[in-house]
Write a structure and sequence with these properties.
The complex is a heterodimer of chains A (92) and B (566). Chain A has four helices and no strands. Chain A is mainly alpha-helical. In chain A, helix 2 runs antiparallel to helix 4. Chain B starts with 15 loop residues before the first helix and ends with a helix. The chains are: A mainly alpha (92), B mainly alpha (566). Chains A and B meet through helix 2, helix 3 and helix 4 of A and helix 1, helix 3 and helix 9 of B.
Chain lengths: 92, 566
């Protein structure tokens, strides 16, 4: 949820909350869970993919992706004008 | 439709980490519904997100709305069965039509400020064509929402062992909560989230699968050694896919049947898709929506078809019957691969991705249905001229009713699978002639209201006729006079619908009265000032915000992909 959407209290601010933070948070949490899960991988689980640490690598990739979303949302925040539905410089 | 046989051996070995990942996903889905609720203050907010969304959001939602159960399960099954030729559904059967929608048709849809595709039909052709379009569309959405729901519940039953009705009601309740709360915004934002979860689930699966078969070269040699042979490694002429014996007719069928009639009919007139573009904030964004969507769309085959192909050589349950002439359970190819390759943790993410895909499809159907029901049927024909808040309420009630009907449809589907299959085919026939009527109506000012609905009806009947004459397309109803079946038959049916629609529309126009030109501004190309096709706010756009330049890049890329996998 971006601060701007809260300041513009009311007037046609549909689409003003920032989905990028939601995506970043969910993928980031998944990343953490997978990185932790890889310590719990049993031999049998690892053998499924020939010893490849699937959880670890996917987890790290998800953490990097999450970071990209946070940085993007920070660098190009959504600006909601008080009087209109337009949401500009949202990185579109 | 696909029947998941509930074999006892296909149970995924899930633990608490997997359930945690799936649960977390549902928390976020509902959270988005609540967050989006705060922004719904009028019916335009609810049905069209207040026309305020940025193009990358609507573009990804455009793809995700189509990335439902039928796409993921169906296309990975086709990948396992036919191999590379399946890419035609994406590179020939989707991307060109998406670019055409953005460049040619979106200016009419967005510029005329209509709130739905049937509404465009009503303003251009009046009541007759509008009723045909709005009713068939609304019914088809209820049906397809039910099918998506049914597939979701069957998969959950197969992989987690939950009873069918439990997952049916849980999934329906979740979709209902966020679509009634946040309307189209909630559906669209969730589609964007779903898109990334689906990619996060399928991309690692594909990479691990490729690792196991020895990379791309390893996959090529193992597919070439398998029953399908090297034919499954090149996209053309795709005779196995079309069912045509002659390579020449197979190419013609793919290019004109799939690439032109079927795909243009689906992508350019289907309100489920077009609604995503209508929700964007300016003309340039609306035009960019399907064009931005084309970029992820052209890479979806790599994470859907490839896992299918990998499963066909790696998973015993698929590869053994395939090589011994049996009938493998291709629809389960993806799930078998997930079972064989992914450890707990990643397994949960894969399940979350599948559930995300199914819910995206169903929510897209429901949100398109409630718009057409509220604006095009209720407001136009039943209760006119009430205040805006009334139609917002109607929309919420329609959403709830649609969900109940979808549960009913899903329960029906679990009993009468074949009937549902044929009904889906039948509704597909309503799509086929739409593109002909739209494109003719947009560029030929003389075309009359009568020609609008007569063309649609006769085109649909022509498609049904071809299906009845072919072999098995409509089950026992098909008499088998024409030597066509499967995909080839639906290409032919769509082609017939298109030609008959055009011919009948032209003939009827000759003998009936056209609409006055003053009523056609914004609806017909030659009667619309060029300024209507541009927004004042669309100035100083960077190259990546200009629809035509983006479309050019997408076109070059999709041609390159076609050449690489020739």
């Amino acid at each position: 949820m971006s601060e701007q959407s809260q300041q513009s209290s009311g007037r046609r601010a549909a689409g003003a909350f920032d989905i990028r933070n939601f995506i970043g948070l969910l993928l980031g949490l998944y990343g953490v869970i997978l990185v932790v899960a890889q310590f719990l991988d049993s031999e049998e689980q690892l053998a499924k993919a020939d010893g490849l640490r699937v959880n670890l690598w996917t987890g790290l990739a998800l953490l990097v992706t999450a970071l990209v979303f946070f940085v993007w949302a920070r660098l190009r925040p959504i600006v909601v004008p008080e009087d209109g539905p337009e949401g500009h410089s949202d990185g579109s | 439709m696909f029947v998941m046989a509930a074999e006892e051996q296909l149970r995924l070995d899930v633990n608490w980490i997997d359930y945690l990942i799936v649960a977390l996903y549902f928390v976020f889905v509902l959270g988005i519904g609540f967050a989006a609720r705060r922004s719904v203050s009028s019916s335009i907010d609810f049905f069209l997100s207040g026309r305020s969304l940025p193009a990358w959001v609507t573009g990804l939602a455009f793809v995700a709305a189509n990335l439902g159960a039928v796409e993921i399960i169906g296309m990975s099954a086709n990948g396992a069965n036919y191999g590379i030729p399946t890419v035609h559904y994406f590179w020939v059967g989707a991307v060109p039509a998406m670019l055409f929608l953005g460049i040619v048709m979106m200016p009419f849809y967005y510029g005329s400020k209509v709130r739905s595709v049937p509404e465009f039909m009503r303003r251009r052709f009046g009541t007759g064509a509008h009723l045909v379009n709005a009713l068939s569309f609304a019914l088809a959405q209820l049906l397809i929402a039910g099918v998506n729901l049914f597939l979701l519940a069957t998969i959950v039953e197969v992989i987690l062992g939950w009873p069918l009705w439990v997952s049916l009601f849980v999934a329906a309740a979740i979709v209902l909560s966020y679509t009634t709360l946040g309307g189209l915004s909630a559906a669209i934002y969730n589609e964007v989230l779903q898109f990334f979860v689906i990619v996060a689930a399928l991309l690692p699966l594909t990479l691990v699968g490729l690792h196991m078969v020895g990379g791309w070269d390893g996959l090529k040699s193992r597919v070439a050694e398998s029953t399908g042979g090297a034919e499954q490694l090149s996209s053309w002429p795709g005779t196995a896919l079309t069912g045509f014996d002659s390579p020449f007719w197979s190419v013609v069928g793919i290019v004109f049947g799939l690439g032109f009639v079927l795909s243009f009919g689906y992508w350019t007139t289907n309100f489920v898709e077009v609604q995503r573009a209508m929700a964007s904030k300016s003309m340039a964004s609306a035009q960019s929506t399907p064009i931005i969507g084309a970029f992820p769309k052209m890479f979806v085959p790599f994470i859907v078809i490839f896992p299918g192909m990998i499963a066909a050589v790696l998973v015993n349950e698929i590869s053994e019957p395939k090589s011994s002439g049996g009938t493998p359970d291709y629809n389960n190819a993806l799930i078998y691969l997930i079972r064989d390759l992914l450890p707990n943790g990643m397994l949960g993410l894969a399940i979350a991705g599948l559930l995300a895909s199914f819910m995206a499809g169903m929510a897209a159907n429901i949100s398109a249905f409630n718009t057409v029901f509220s604006y095009d049927l209720w407001e136009t024909y039943v209760v006119k001229d009430r205040e805006d808040g009334y139609y917002l309420k109607v929309g919420r009630v329609a959403t709830a009713l649609a969900t109940v009907v979808a549960i009913g449809t899903a329960l029906f589907a679990s009993q009468y699978n074949n009937i549902m299959d044929y009904l889906q085919t039948l509704f597909g026939f309503f799509n086929a002639p739409l593109f002909a009527t739209f494109i003719l109506g947009m560029f030929w000012k003389r075309m009359t209201p009568t020609a609008g609905w007569v063309g649609l009806v006769s085109g649909t009947l022509a498609a049904v006729l071809v299906a009845v004459l072919s072999e098995g397309t409509l089950g026992v109803l098909s008499v088998g006079v024409l030597p066509l079946s499967g995909q080839g038959a639906s290409f032919a049916a769509a082609g017939a619908a298109f030609v008959v629609d055009i011919v009948v529309s032209v003939l009827v126009t000759m003998v009936t009265a056209p609409k006055p030109e003053s009523e056609l501004r914004g609806l017909v190309y030659s009667l619309t000032p060029k300024a209507d096709f541009h927004d004042d706010t669309d100035v100083d756009l960077a190259w990546y915000q200009q629809p035509t330049k983006l479309a050019g890049i997408a076109l070059v890329m999709v041609i390159a992909l076609n050449v690489v996998f020739w």
